[in-house]
């Protein structure tokens, strides 16, 4: 907000032709650059680094504005609401592209006061303490951690203040929950250890069911992304890149030659998103990932498009055979490959249960990849439509249909669309 106020010249998403979240992100980066420059200037003038970070003029202004925000200053609140609306509108556009939606949203601006109430109770019980400057801390050295700031000296909140309030609000809204899973990157491991410990110390027994699903970060071939420094590939750019990569590879492979032009764009989005999600979800969440867009769109590897293409192939096969009214009772002549496929089909429920219990969608991703590998080998070596025996044809068609149903179901669990045609 401060950076936009100082350097924005009234710029808006409309005047800049930028998505709202991208515009606000631009000023996030500008703030950081000006701040670092001012800190360095103070250091050059003889101020030690710790004090230089506190005395930088743009930082001082941000601190003052935060205090005004908490005091409900009308001008600050109005600008905050305006810039927030830009961000949320931009986020919503991206979430729609990714096929993401939420049952309920919690805003830190609405939970920080509840967090302050929690901290006040902790002070009354002697679990938390104030330093001479008025800041509030918790000492977790007996638990193998250290001291943690909970409220600044000027009384303004920090991340953990808001997280304390949000935890209470969620339990209040959903009193019957049996666990709460925080899906946040492993750079926040320490933060969540502290959060859960504080709640436990304050006597909230339900915090014992809280769990931090700590996931490894995703790198791109160009290296780690840092939003403050502007070295970030935003989701919209990545989505566009994935769609473009899907288009190029699909055209080279001749996968879309028979599709009408209007259907191609939708399909490239479906393939691109399938590639992106599957590439990331097939890996154990705790492992760090190097994401390579081109490698993720391979119609012959352990990828989303490989699985999507197999589904489309099965749908094409079934449409030629008119299987809508197929009825089948018993078949005793299954080949070794068919028995192998049936065994893999039987592993579906245990795989899904294991994925749920271990909070690891990679188990589902790798299950369906193994199923698709088996089916493709079967499809290449076994006649289906050209089978002369009617019972054998029915069995093979229904086996194919079952595999197709499982592909669609498991991809849906991973948030991936199974296209009918490719």
From TrEMBL:
GO BP term (any one): arginyl-tRNA aminoacylation
Keywords, alphabetical: Aminoacyl-tRNA synthetase, ATP-binding, Ligase, Nucleotide-binding, Protein biosynthesis
Annotated DALR anticodon binding domain residues: 307-422
InterPro entries per the UniProt record, alphabetical: Arg-tRNA-ligase (IPR001278), ArgRS_core (IPR035684), DALR_anticod-bd (IPR008909), Rossmann-like_a/b/a_fold (IPR014729), tRNAsynth_Ia_anticodon-bd (IPR009080)
GO terms of molecular function: arginine-tRNA ligase activity; ATP binding
Enzyme nomenclature, EC number: 6.1.1.19
Cited Gene3D superfamilies: HUPs (3.40.50.620), Isoleucyl-tRNA Synthetase, Domain 1 (1.10.730.10)
Catalytic function, reaction form: tRNA(Arg) + L-arginine + ATP = L-arginyl-tRNA(Arg) + AMP + diphosphate
Domain of life of the source: Eukaryota
Family indicated by similarity: Belongs to the class-I aminoacyl-tRNA synthetase family.
PANTHER family: ARGININE--TRNA LIGASE, CYTOPLASMIC (PTHR11956:SF5), ARGINYL-TRNA SYNTHETASE (PTHR11956)
Name the UniProt record assigns to this protein: arginine--tRNA ligase
UniProt organism field: Elysia marginata
Upper lineage: Eukaryota, Metazoa, Spiralia, Lophotrochozoa, Mollusca
């Amino acid at each position: 907000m401060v950076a936009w106020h100082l350097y924005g010249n009234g710029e808006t998403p409309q005047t800049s032709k930028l998505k709202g979240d991208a515009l606000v992100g631009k000023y996030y980066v500008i703030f950081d650059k000006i701040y670092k420059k001012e800190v360095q200037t103070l250091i050059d003038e003889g101020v030690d680094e710790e004090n230089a970070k506190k005395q930088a003029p743009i930082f001082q202004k941000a601190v003052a504005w935060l205090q005004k925000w908490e005091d409900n200053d009308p001008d600050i609140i109005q600008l905050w609401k305006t810039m927030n609306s830009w961000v949320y509108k931009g986020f919503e556009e991206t979430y729609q592209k990714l096929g993401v939606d939420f049952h309920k949203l919690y805003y830190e601006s609405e939970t920080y006061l509840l967090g302050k109430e929690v901290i006040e109770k902790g002070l009354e019980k002697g679990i938390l303490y104030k330093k001479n400057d008025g800041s509030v801390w918790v000492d977790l050295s007996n638990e193998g951690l250290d001291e943690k700031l909970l409220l600044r000296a000027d009384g303004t909140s920090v991340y953990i203040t808001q997280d304390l309030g949000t935890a209470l609000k969620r339990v209040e809204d959903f009193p019957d929950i049996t666990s709460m899973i925080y899906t946040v990157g492993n750079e926040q491991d320490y933060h969540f250890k502290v959060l859960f410990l504080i709640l436990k110390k304050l006597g909230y027994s339900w915090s014992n069911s809280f769990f931090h699903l700590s996931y490894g970060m995703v790198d791109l071939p160009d290296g780690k992304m840092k939003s403050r420094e502007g070295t970030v590939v935003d989701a919209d750019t990545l989505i566009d890149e994935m769609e473009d990569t899907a288009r190029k590879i699909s055209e080279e492979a001749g996968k879309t030659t028979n599709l009408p032009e209007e259907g191609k764009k939708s399909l490239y989005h479906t393939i691109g998103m399938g590639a992106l999600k599957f590439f990331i979800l097939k890996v154990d969440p705790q492992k760090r990932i190097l994401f390579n867009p081109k490698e993720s769109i391979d119609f012959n590897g352990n990828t989303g498009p490989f699985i999507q293409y197999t589904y489309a192939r099965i749908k094409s096969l079934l449409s030629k055979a008119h299987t809508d009214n197929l009825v089948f009772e018993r078949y005793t002549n299954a080949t070794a490959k068919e028995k192998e496929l049936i065994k893999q089909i039987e592993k579906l429920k245990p795989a899904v249960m294991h994925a749920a219990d271990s909070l690891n969608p990679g188990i589902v991703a790798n299950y369906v990849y193994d199923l698709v590998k088996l089916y493709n080998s079967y499809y290449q070596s076994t006649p289906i439509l050209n089978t002369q025996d009617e019972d054998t044809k029915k069995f093979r068609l229904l086996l194919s249909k079952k595999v197709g149903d499982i592909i669609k179901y498991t991809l849906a669990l991973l948030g991936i669309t199974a296209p009918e045609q490719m």
